[in-house]
Write a structure and sequence with these properties.
The chain is an alpha/beta fold. The protein has a single domain, classed as NAD(P)-binding Rossmann-like Domain (Rossmann fold). It has nine helices and seven strands. The protein has a seven-stranded parallel sheet, sandwiched between helices. Strand 5, helix 5 and strand 6 form a beta-alpha-beta unit. Helix 2 packs parallel to helix 4 and helix 3 packs parallel to helix 5. The protein is globular, with a radius of gyration of 18 Å. The N and C termini lie far apart (about 50 Å). The chain binds NADP nicotinamide-adenine-dinucleotide phosphate. The site of NADP nicotinamide-adenine-dinucleotide phosphate has 31 residues, from helix 1.
Length: about 270
């Protein structure tokens, strides 16, 4: 059991909700967040309104937790979304900015807001939800993959800077997980006829893979493991598929990985 104050962003569904429930069960006092506000009711944790794309919203949510408890021991940056499979050039620059604003700058906003308090405490943990697409780029998911590469780079750099102050940062990298992620995908806003067929084919393939994916509890368990570890790792693969992909990325020749991605997505070689 661990008692401490935890914030989990994007806790209204999926990985965030499972993580907030798991941390509560482990003894943390958990504040989950959602843009839709406080629908606490049946949940095992408190819910705060928060939009990670808004600095005033981030400040207001943290102020509420700090007023009540005077400290934050654990921040889980989970809020994020994807764009439905499409070619990179089928998203406008505005859409590219929008996905970075939540998936990456959302983490930067939250981190900048909690760090002064964690530094003052001389302790704290920040756990960022990345993705296997943060180390294994995937065609037709270029922008999402780019946001998760940014999350991984930011997290590892930050951990180096903060560990001597008692603060550790880890990134959790799941493969496909069965959540509302699929239902919440943004539609590419600059579709091109040239990609119509391949877009449909990749979409079909991704849906097939998601059918056999793990549930969000597996990620929640990994978050808890990272939160409790005396010497946390900088990166955790969450689940068997993610672990195998990480090994492949690390040890297999690049040409083999490249061919494997194309074969898996049934792309022409
Ligand atoms: N599912 C997968 O296959 C998978 C795999 C690897 C990594 N991930 C990552 O896991 C994280 C959670 O995804 P999920 O699968 O659990 O999807 P999900 O069920 O759609 O949950 C996404 C959560 O993010 C919140 N959110 C989205 N935009 C937000 C914003 N601007 N401010 C605050 N909250 C926001 C949503 O809350 P509200 O709408 O209530 O605000 C929701 O609670 C994401 O970072 C995703 O990239 C998912």
């Amino acid at each position: 059991m661990k008692s401490g104050i935890a914030i989990v962003t994007g806790a209204s569904s999926g990985i965030g909700e499972a993580t907030a429930n798991r941390l509560t069960k482990a003894g943390y006092k958990v504040y989950g967040t959602s843009r839709r506000g406080t629908q606490a009711g049946q949940r095992t944790f408190e819910m705060l309104p928060l939009d990670v794309t808004s600095e005033p919203s981030v400040e207001a949510a943290l102020k509420e937790v700090l007023n009540l408890h005077g400290r934050i021991d654990l921040l889980v940056n989970n809020a994020g979304f994807g764009i439905a499979p499409a070619a990179a050039e089928e998203s406008s620059l505005d859409q590219a900015r929008a996905i970075f604003d939540t998936n990456f700058f959302g983490i930067v906003r939250m981190t900048r807001a909690v760090l002064p308090h964690m530094r003052q405490q001389g302790s704290g943990r920040i756990i960022n939800i990345g993705s296997v697409l943060g180390f294994l780029p995937m065609p037709y998911m270029a922008l999402y993959s780019a946001t998760k590469h940014a999350v991984a780079g930011y997290s590892e750099s930050l951990d180096h800077e903060l560990r001597t102050m008692g603060i550790r940062v880890s990134v959790i990298e799941p493969a496909y997980i069965k959540t509302s992620f699929d239902a919440n995908l943004m539609t590419p806003d600059a579709p091109l006829d040239e990609y119509r067929e391949i877009r449909a084919a990749v979409d079909k393939r991704v849906k097939e893979v998601i059918e056999s994916a793990d549930g969000p509890e597996i990620v929640a368990e990994t978050v808890l493991q990272a939160a409790l570890a005396a010497r946390p790792k900088r990166r955790y693969a969450a689940g068997g598929v993610a672990g195998r992909l990480r090994l492949l990325r690390r040890f297999a020749p690049a040409s083999l990985v490249d061919a494997g991605i194309r074969k898996d997505l049934r792309l022409a070689t």
